[in-house]
Amino acid sequence: MTSPWAGLTGRSRSSSSPRVEAAAARGIALYLEDITVSFDGFRALNALTLYVDIGELRCIIGPNGAGKTTMMDVITGKTRPDSGSAWFGQNVDLLNLTEPEIAQAGIGRKFQKPTVFEKHTVFDNLELAMAGNKSVWSTLFARIAPVQIERIEEVLQRIGLLEQRRAIAGTLSHGQKQWLEIGMLLMQDPQVLLVDEPVAGMTPQEIERTAQLLTSLAGKHSVVVVEHDMAFVRSIARRVTVLHEGSVLAEGSIDEVQAHPKVIEVYLGV
Amino acid sequence: MQQFMNAGGGSLAGSGGLAGAIRSDRGGQLFLCGLLAVIIVVPVLNLLVPEGSALHMSSYTVTLLGKYITYAMLAMAVDLVWGYCGILSLGHGAFFALGGYAIGMYLMRQIGTRGVYGDPVLPDFTVFLNWKELPWFWHGFDSFPFAALMVFLAPGLLALVFGFLAFRSRVSGVYLSIITQALTYALMLAFFRNDMGFGGNNGFTDFKDLLGFSLQSPATRMVLFLCTALSLGGTYLLCRYIIASRAGRVIQAVRDAESRARFLGYRVESYKLWMFVLSALLAGLAGALYVPQIGIINPSEFSPANSIEIVIWVAIGGRGTLYGAVVGAFIVNYAKTYFTAALPSMWLYALGALFVLVTLFLPNGVVGLMAQRLRRTVPDAAPADATVVPK
Predict the structure, then answer these.
(1) Which residues make Cβ contacts (< 8 Å) with residue B280, sequence separation at least 6?
(2) Does A5 reside within a domain?
(3) For residue B377, what pLDDT is reported?
(4) Mean pLDDT across the stretch B103-127?
(5) Is residue A153 situated within a structural domain?
(6) Is the pLDDT of residue B97 over 90?
(7) How high is the ipTM of this complex?
(8) Which residues of B touch A (CB under 8 A)?
(9) Other CB atoms closer than 10 Å to residue A36's CB: what's the count?
(10) Closest by Cβ to A100, choosing from B12, B245, B266
(11) Which of A66, B1, B13, B103 has the smallest number of Cβ neighbours within 10 A?
(12) What's the alpha-carbon Rg for chain A, to the nearest Å?
């Protein structure tokens, strides 16, 4: 299988700024610069600038209302920013694409509340998520190929739901639904995975398995995790970004961030 | 009863296609067998059994059955968008009526000099309105292929434009339902106007013949009946194929978790739009089969209450099964025929009560109840009669 990064690196954009060139040299997967979003005068994002490297696992933390979900909305095309730029790799301008186009380009998003197709089987959920031509006409005549079944089984194995493949997704436990949703993202073959609060409501065992799953994905994919559970963040993150009032407050390793005086002031509440 | 648990179809082995879809669809097999029986038995009882015999089926009954079958097609079209896409259209009567008007215009042109005023070109109502020439949109309707094209084009285009605007703006839920009501209401008011050129409140009637065959002859009526029954079967197979295909599973996924589907890369709007257009085409065809059998089309077909009634048929039969829509259309319309003859003032109360009772006690409709009974009685052979009353 070709690397999911094919097409993302190596090419240069015609109208690229020096900063973008520098970003390309470092291998940046996701590039947000000076993003501002306001809702009725409330600045949900305030000149947010954030880079996510290719293959890294990044945790985003921040108090409620810091702009974490809005940031994901901007990246996935749900919300259009008032100003700023958002690039996926070096040549995909996210602000010109619709949600399905962004998904097709290679950004997968897991919602805060596990969202799977409850009436479909686990297998069907993954089949529908599979990368490929998703137009009405082609899905009307689509037949699943043996290689695609293998791919689905591989993902089932990975998310630990091989035995539940024929189960109706609505009957899965909360944790299993979270994994199924992550599995659906994997079926898309995305380069960037945005994962919103993956361990909310999970048991300690489930949290541990989720941590293993997410760390195993980093490297092949860039993984951006928004999470409140600090123990979980500590167990997976190499780099942590703290958001506060719509912009980046601090960035670094979990220890650096936790020792940062501003972070202690606004977030850790000491 | 696997198929009731996994309405999505979708087999792991990938044995897709129509054959695979029907093989796992017990209710659909039953429905198709029933339809086949009707196609064989009705012509025999009507044409071969002598009129004096107790087994003879009158042409009146054949026409009534034909009418129910067109309603069943209409209900199936509504179930396709409501049961599977989650789009509650309260305006499908408009597509049905447009299909009916298209064929009605052809039938009006066929009357020729046999009309009251005997004008070879102008239909009676235009002579009555003192019009000197045929309105431009009546040209071409003397040709059956053109009219047949319009049967699909008129409702299809309306659904395309309406659906494009509504789905692109992400109008959904109750707002969409209200707009569809407004759509059919607006069309009703427009068609009531004499100067629209569609016969005003009288609509079209007094048809003579279709493709040269008299609409009064039992043979023509039987052919029309058979075409209607075959169309219902074809509609079922087409819808079943679509529902079992990956596209069909996508539309159900959109119904259950729209944003998930969108973030997986599906253009949700176009899935909704094409299902809506297809549904409108099927409703138009049903209308076109209805009019020559019933012999009249007028603007009351556009009335908002009509469209709401279709939704009630589907709810009573059981939505999201396709054949449930057929069952519902037959039950309600048979009851309507009975009540409006026996206790005319009670019909609307009966309809309302039926709807309330089904919503309260049979959320999956009549076919849902039958499936439930089968599930209960098949595994343990003990009679389950004492336990089936839903609480």
Answers:
(1) B77, B92, B95, B155, B156, B158, B159
(2) no
(3) 67
(4) 86
(5) yes
(6) yes
(7) 0.80
(8) 5-8, 10, 12, 14, 16, 242, 245-247, 249-250, 252-253, 256-257, 259-268, 270-271, 274
(9) 17
(10) B266
(11) B13
(12) 19
Per the DSSP assignment, residues forming a β-bridge with A83 are A36
What is the per-residue pLDDT for B302?
A: 94
User: pLDDT tier at B3 (50, 70, 90 boundaries)?
Assistant: very low
DSSP states of B211-250 as a string?
TTEETTSHHHHHHHHHHHHHHHHHHHHHHHHHHHSHHHHH
* Across B173-199, average pLDDT: 92
- Per-residue pLDDT of B345-356, as tens digits, reads 888 888 888 888
Question: pLDDT per residue over B318-366, tens digit each?
Answer: 999 999 999 999 999 998 888 888 888 888 888 888 888 888 888 888 8
Domain assignment present for residue A12? The answer is: no
Q: Look at B263 and A99 and tell me if their CB atoms are within 8 Å.
A: yes
Name the residue facing B264 among A121, A129, A145 (closest C-beta).
A129
For residues A187 and A1, the answer to whether their CB atoms sit within 8 Å is no
> CA distances (Å), B40 to each of B109, B159, B219, B220, B237, in order?
33, 35, 15, 16, 19
Answer whether B263 sits within 8 Å of A76, measured CB to CB.
yes
Chain A residues within 8 A (CB-CB) of chain B? 76, 98-101, 103-104, 108-109, 111, 115-121, 123-124, 127-129, 131, 134-136, 139-145, 149, 165-166, 168, 181, 184, 188
A-B C-beta contacts closer than 8 Å: 104
Cross-chain residue pair A135–B16, CB shorter than 8 Å = no
The stretch B145-166 carries a mean pLDDT of 96
Neighbours of B113 (CB within 10 A): 9
Can you count the helices (H) and strands (E) in chain B?
16, 4
Quote the minimal CA–CA distance from B234 to chain A in Å.
17
What percent of chain B stands above pLDDT 90?
A: 53
**Is B246 close to A128, i.e. CB distance below 8 A?**
yes
Q: Name the burial class of residue B79, with classes exposed (0-12), middle (13-18) and buried (19+) by CB atoms within 10 angstroms of its CB.
A: buried
- The CATH number given to whatever domain includes residue A89 is 3.40.50.300
Please provide the average confidence, as pLDDT, over all residues in chain B: 87
Q: Rounded CA gap, B192 and B189, in Å?
A: 5
Do residues B211 and A90 touch, judged by C-beta distance below 8 A?
Answer: no
DSSP A120-154: SBHHHHHHHHSSS--SHHHHHS----HHHHHHHHH
DSSP letters for B291-314: HHHH-EE-GGGG-HHHHHHHHHHH
Distance CA B164, CA B256 (A): 21
User: Domain tally for chain A?
Assistant: 1
> Quick check: B3 and B201 in contact, CB under 8 A?
no
The whole domain housing A129 covers 18-268
> Is residue A3 one of the residues assigned to a domain?
no
Helix (H), strand (E) at residue B83: none
